Amino acid sequence: MEPVHVNVAIIGAGTAGMGAYRAARALTDSVLLIEGGAYGTTCARVGCMPSKLLIAAAEAAHHARHAGPFGVQVSSVTVDGAAVMARVRRERDRFVGFVLETVEALPPADRLLATVRFQDANTLVTAHGQWVHARRIVIASGSIPVLPPVLKGLGAHLLTNENIFDLPTLPASLAVFGPGPLGMELAQAMSRLGVKVKVFGIGGGIAGIQDPAIRGYANAAFNAELYLDASAEVQSARETATGVEIHYRHRDGTWHTEAFDQVLAATGRTPAVAGLALENTGLALDERGVPVFDRFTMQCGTSAIFMAGDASNDVPLLHEAADQGRIAGENAARHPEVRPGHRRAPLAVVFTEPQVATVGLTLKQLGEQFKGRFAVGQVSFEDQGRSRVMLRNQGILKVYAEHGSGLFLGAEMFGPAAEHIGHLLAWAAQQGMTVARMLEMPFYHPVIEEGLRTALRDLNHQLHIGPDVIARCMDCGPGA
Q1: Tens place of pLDDT for every residue, the chain, 480 residues?
Q2: Which helix or strand (DSSP H or E) is residue 189 part of?
Q3: pTM score
Q4: Between vectors from CA 344 to CA 307 and to CA 376, what angle results, nearest 5°?
C-alpha cells in the first residue's frame, strides 16, 4: 500500500473529529479524517439522542399515571416495551443517518476507515500496515465504558450505553451500577416504563451534584420512585442462565441476594487512547495515559499533536467536544502558529425529573478560587407558583456571586426546567453579568423562571447589595 502524506491527520470522526476536520479544511486542502469504528457520533448513536428518546417515552407513561391530581382520570397505562425500543432505535438510526450523510459527503480522498497507532510523533500506521505521514495530528478518538471490578466477567446480561438501546424490548428488572448523570437518566426512565430498577453507587455521588443539601434532596426525591443507594456495598454479581444475581447490603443493613434480568454499567467512560501507542510520540502522559495538553490551544506540550473531545478527558459534553475540535483543527492547520481558542461558560444538564443543571464555577472550584469571597442565594421550588400549577414543585436552586463586585459566578440546581434556567444562567456567566444586572432583566408571570429571580434577590441580599427579600412579594405575582 502506498503511504499517505498529509498536512493534518485527525484520529476519530465523532463530534470533535468532525469539528477538527471542518476547521482544518478551511485552512488547508490536505486533511485526512481517520475512523477505526462505525461512523456516527457517540451522541447520536449511543448517547444523548437515544437516551432522550427513552426518557420521552418514560415521561409520557409517568404523566399519564399521575394525572389524577389534575382531575384527569386515566383508567390504565400499558407500556409496550417492544414498541418503545423500536421507536428508540428508529429515531436513533435517523439521527445517525444525518451524521453518515455528512461524512459520506466528504471527498473520498479525505477519509480513511482504519485503526491506527503512532509509529512516531508524525507517523501513523494502520492495522494493515499502511503508513500515514502527517505534519500535524489531532487525537479525537473518543472514549469507552469503564467496568467496575465486580461486574467484570459478566457476559450476555451486561449492558452499557453502547448496547442498551439495541434491546428488543424492556427487561422486567434492571440493576444499574453508577448513579451518575447517564445512570440516573436511564434508571429513572426504565423505572417509569415499568421496569423494576435498583441503583448502586460508590462514594455517595448522585447525578454529579456537588452541593450536599441539593444532593440530599435529590436522593430523597429519587428514592421516592426507585431504590437508590449511592454508597452501596455490593459483594458479588454472578451470572446465571436467566440473568444476574447480586449479593448486596440493603439500605436497612441486611444482606440480600436478588436476581435481575440485566445489569447496566453506567460507571463512567475513559479516553480511548490505549491502542494508539502514545509512548512512541515522546509526549508527557497523565495518570490515565492521556497526553498533557493546554485546554485553550489543545496543543500537547510544544508538539504538533493536539487533543479534542472525550479523548482529552476534559469535559465530556457534545458542545465542549465541538469547541475543542474547532480549536484543535484550526491550530493544527496553522501550526507552528498556535492561538488560544474561545471556551464557553461551563454548562451541564442531567435530564432526570427533576432535572439537574450546573453552570459556571462548581462548588469545589468556588472553594478553591473564591474561599471566603462568595455569597450564596437560594430558592425552593416547593411553593413556586408555576411549578405548583404543573405539580412539578420539587427542587432547590443555589446561585453564587463574588462579594464586592457582585459578579455572578455559577449555580447548581435540582428542579423543574433546569435545562432552560441553566441556559439563562450560562449566558449571564459568559457575559460577565453582575447579580444586580441580572435582576434588571425581564421576568414574565407566571413562569418557573420567577424562582430564579427569587434566588437572585436572595443572593443580592447576601451580598449586602440589595434590600431584604420580601416574603410573598405581590408585585412579582402570587407564588413567585
Answers
A1: 899 999 999 999 999 999 999 999 999 999 999 999 877 777 877 788 999 999 999 999 999 999 999 999 999 999 999 999 999 999 999 999 998 899 889 999 999 999 999 999 999 999 999 999 999 999 999 999 999 999 998 999 999 999 999 999 999 999 999 999 999 999 999 999 999 999 999 999 999 999 999 999 999 999 999 999 999 999 999 999 999 999 999 999 999 999 999 999 999 899 999 999 999 999 999 998 999 999 999 999 999 999 999 999 888 888 899 999 999 999 999 999 999 999 999 999 999 999 999 999 999 999 999 999 999 999 999 999 999 999 999 999 999 999 999 999 999 999 999 999 999 999 999 999 999 999 999 999 999 999 999 999 999 999 998 777 666 664 555 555
A2: helix 181-192
A3: 0.94
A4: 125
141 plus 158 within the same structural domain: no
**Domain membership flag for residue 403:** yes
| Domains of the chain: total | 3
Query: Is 125 among the domain residues?
Result: yes
- Per the listing, cell 493544527 goes with 332
AA letter at 86: A
Domain at 413, CATH number: 3.30.390.30
Determine contact, residues 90/165, Cβ cutoff 8 Å: no
Match 462505525 to its residue by C-alpha cell: 38
Cell numbers standing for residue 16: 470533535
Inside any domain, residue 340: no
